[in-house]
Hints:
Distance between the termini: 25 Å
Order of helices and strands: HHHH
Shape: globular
Radius of gyration: 13 Å
Helix content: 40-55%
Number of helices: 4
Amino acid sequence: MNLSESIPKKYAPPYVAVRRLEEAFKLLSSRSFSRIEVADLSARGFSKVDANQTVAGLKFLGVISEDGT
């Protein structure tokens, strides 16, 4: 067993606006997603930069996994 596989990956704290995280939480609570990706948020009015930062923030908070599920 590779030791690095058993250690969870750490995410850097995101630099995302609280407003964008709030919007993402509202979206996640009102719709069912099997996976969240940058394209999903971009299609819902997030800029590409905001979408990337928001996905990173959700991963950092442990709301979604590394693969977006």
